[in-house]
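Reader question, answered in our methods column.
A reader sent in the components of a multi-part assembly and asked whether the whole thing could be modeled at once rather than chain by chain. We filled in our standard form and ran it. Here is what they sent:
COMPLEX SIZE: three components
ENTRIES:
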Amino acid sequence: MKKLSSTLLIGLILVLFTVGLVSAQAERTVTDSLGREVTIEEVPERVVTTIVSTTEIALDLGLDERLVGVPDLIQYLSYVPELQEKAEKKEKVGGFKLSIEKIASLNPGLVILDASAQKDMVSKIKDIGATVYAAGSRDIESVRETILEIGYLTGKLDRAQKIVGEMVYKETQLRDAVAKLDEKKSTFYTISKRMYTVGDNTFVGTALQLAGLNNVFGEISGFKPVNTEEIIKKNPELIIATEDMGLTAEDLREDKGLKEVKAVQNGNVVLLPTGEDSMLNQPGTKIIDGAINLFEKIYDTEVNL
Amino acid sequence: MWVAGEVQLLYLICPLRVMNRAKPKVTFATLFVLLAFAFLVGVAIGPVSIPLGKSLLILTDKLPLLEFSGLPSNFQTIIFDLRLPRILTGLLVGSSLAVSGTVMQGIFRNPLATPYILGVASGGSAGAATVVVLGFTSNFALPIGALIGALSAVTIVYRISWSRGSTSSYTLILAGVALSSLFSALTTALIFIAGPYQQHRVLFWMMGGLWRSSWTLFKILLPIATVGAGIIFAWSRDLNALALGESAAEHLGVKPALVKKTLLGLATAITAVSVAAAGSIGFVGLVIPHIMRMILGPDHRILLPAAALGGGVFLIYTDVLAKTIMQPVEMPVGVITAFFGAPFFLYLLRKKIVGGRMR
Amino acid sequence: MKVKVDDLRFSYNGKGVLEGLDLTVRKGEFIGIVGPNGSGKTTLLKNIGGVLDPDDGGVYLGEKELSSIPIGEVATKVAALEQETSVGFDFTVREVVEMGRFPHLDRFERHSEGDLEAVDRAIEITDLEEFSERYVNQLSGGEKQRVFLALALAQEPELLLLDEPTASLDINYQIKIMETVKCLQSEGLTVIAAIHDLNLAAQYADRVALMADGEVKVAGEPNDVLTKDNIAKVFGVDVEVEDSEVKGTIHIFPKTETLSK
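And here is the structure of the entire assembly that came back:
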C-alpha cells in the first residue's frame, strides 16, 4: 500500500511538471526560484555552476561534457568522489566572490546561480550575455524543482525525472521508517566549540527532521551560538557534531557543562566525518541519502529501499 | 575678547562641575556594592533558572567542611563551572580593558584613545585567522595565535615609531592606525583564502565574547591582569604628570619616554591577553574611563582603580544580558557593550567634550 | 643656586643651535636672556633644566654636573615655567599645583602637612585662591600661566627657569608674574628667564645675557648690555635707549623715523 502511494506521488509530480512544460517545446521557459522567467532558445552547450550543490546536480544530470565552470571550494563535494573528481578538472570561477571576468571568459550559455546567496550577481551575469538560472535551496521541495528545471533547460529532463523520482521514493521510505519509531531522539547538532547550532529553517535542520531527529533548538533561525546552560536545560539525548571546524569527540566529552547532558552521560555523541555532514549541508541530489545515512546510523535500523 | 566669551559660555554649559565630583570613598563603596551585586546577578541569572538561595548554597558547598548538598549536580556544574569562571573572567577582561583604555587616553591625552588604538585587536584577529588557516584546531591554538598576533602588531608599531628612545604620540597613533588597517586587510585576505568552515571559525572568534571562560583560562589571566594593572596603578602619578605635557612632566622628574614605554607596554600586554581570552570587545575601554573620569575627575591615582572596578562590573552585567536577552541564542557581548557604549559616546560628542575642551 | 654653563653645544637634526655657549649665574640672581627669535633661548633653558641633553660641554648646578644628577633629584631643585602650557583633562587648579610636590614624594607617599603648606603658599603667592577649585582648562591664558607658575613654586625650587612667561599675556598679567618672581627672588630663588620684551628684561633682571647665533654675545648689567649698538647688531634695528623715570632702569623704544616708515 505504501509503495503504491509513493509511486503514485512520483507519477503525479512528474506528470504535472511535464504538462506545465509541454506548451513551450521550441524554446524552453521555466520560472526560477527568484520568480524570474528563464527562457532558453536552444540547449546550452556551455554551463557554469557557482555553488557546490548545483555542480553536483549538473554532474548527476550527465552534463560533464558541457559543464565548463565550477566554484572554488569543490572539495566539499567529497561525499560523491566520482563527481568531485570530474569537477576538479573544470575551471574555477570563484567562491566567496565570483569572478565575473572568469565566467565571461568561459562564454557560458547558462549560468546557474544560488537564489539566496548570489541574488545580486544576476544582473551582472546577464550583462555578459549569459542566461541566468537561480537555483533554490530553501527546502527539499525547492531542490527537487531545481533539479527538474535544470534538467529541462539543459535537455536532460529524463535523467532529472529519474533522480527526483528516486529522491521522492527514498524520502517516502524514510518517512515510513521514521513513522515506525517509538520516539524521536532529542538532538543537539553543533558545528563548533562555540556551540553554534542550526534551526529547523536551515537545510541541515530539514535533513535532521527527515532523519527522524528532534532538533532541541529547532526554533532558532539560521546558524547561531547557544549558551552551554541552554544545552543543559534542553538535555538532549543525542549530540551530533561535525568535525570540519576542528571539533573532536574529546572536546564534547570533556566540556564541563556538557557533562551534565544525557547524551554525553550515555555516550550518545556522534561525530560526523567531513563529507557526511556536507551531504546534509548541500541542497543537492544526495540530501535524502544523507538523511537516510544519518537515520540508519542513529537508530540502527535499515530503511527499506 | 572671543576667548573670554568662549570661557563664559563653557561656564554656562557646565557650571563649575568640580562641585559635582563624587567623593572617591562614596564612589568606591558604590562600585564594590555594584560588584557584589554583579556577582549575585551573574551567579543567579542565566538560561537555567536557579533560585538565588540555592545558588548561594552551592557556592558555600565548595567551602571545606560545609556540605549542604541535596541539590542536583547539574546546578552545581552550572554555577561552579559555567557561571562563576565566566563572572571572574569577565571581571578580569573588563578591568583590563578599562585600565588599558585609561592608560591610552592618559598617555595620548586624547579621550578618543582605546585599548585597541595601537593595533592589538586587529593583530589578534590576524593571529587567530593565521592559526585557523594553518589548520591548528587545538583548544588553545586560537588564543595563543591571537596573543602572538596582538603582541607582534604592537611590537611593530613601537619599532616603527620609536627612534632615539622616544616617540611622539602622533607617530604612535598613526602607526597604530596604519598597522591596524594592514592587519585587518591580512585578516580579510586570510578569511578570503580559507575554506568556509575556517572562515566561520575566524568570524566566530572575531565576535568577541566570554563563552570561552573556564577556570583554566581564569587562572592564566589572573596573574597577568593583576600584576599588569598593579604596576600601572603604581605609576599613576607619572600619568598625572604627563597630562601637563611631556616637558612639564620632565621638569617634575618624570621621564616621559620611560613612562610611555612602561605603561603602554603593560596596557598592551593586559589588552593582548584579554583579546586572546575573549576576542575584541568594544566600548568598555573607551567608555568606562570616560564615565569614571566624569564622576571622579582625572586624577589617575583614583581613576585607574575605579576604571578597573567599573570595567569589570560593566562587563559582568552586559554578559548576563548577552546570555539571556535572546534565549536560547547567545548574543556576542560586544553587541551589548556597543549598545550601551555607542549612545553614551554620541552623548559625549553632543556635549562637545570630545576634541574640544578635554584635549 | 649657582649655575654654570660651560661651552655648551647642542644641535637639532644636525643643525647647530647652541655653539659653545658660556654663562654663569650667581646664587639668588635674576638673569634675563634676551635675543632674537631662533637665537636658542628656549634650547638653552631646556638644557639647563635637563629636558635636553647637550651634545658637548656641560651644565653645572652648584658644584655638580647636571647629567650626573638623577632627574628626580633635579626636579627638587629646578622648576620651570614654559612658554606654552596645556593640561589634558579636567584637572583643577589645586590638583595641578599639588603635582609640584611630586619630586619630593616617594611613589606611594601621601602629601604631608608640609607638602600641603607648600601648595597653599604657591596658590597664595600667585593669587589663585579663588580659582583653586576651578578647572585649569576653563581659565584664561594669563590665569593658566599663573597656575603653572604656582606648580613650579610648589616644587620649592632653588632655581626657576622662565621661558618667555609673559609673551602672550596682557600687560597686567605680565607685570603680575614678573612681580611675583621678583618677590621670590628676594627670598633666595635664582631665576633664569628668557624674556622677549627688552624693557621688561631691563626692568626686572639683575643682569642680562644677549644671545645670538647660539652664543651669549654680551652679558652684564642691563644698561651695559642693552645699548643702542648691541641691539642694532643683534636685532638689526635702530632704537633709542633712555634712562627711565624709574630709578636704575632704562627705556628702549624704536626711533621715530623707523616708526613713521
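What stands out: The interface with chain C takes residues 3-4, 7, 10-11, 16-19, 106, 109-111, 234, 237, 240-245, 247-248, 250-255, 293, 297-299, 357-359 of chain B (CB under 8 Å). Chain B has one domain: 27-44+51-62+69-357.
Send us your own complexes using the same form.
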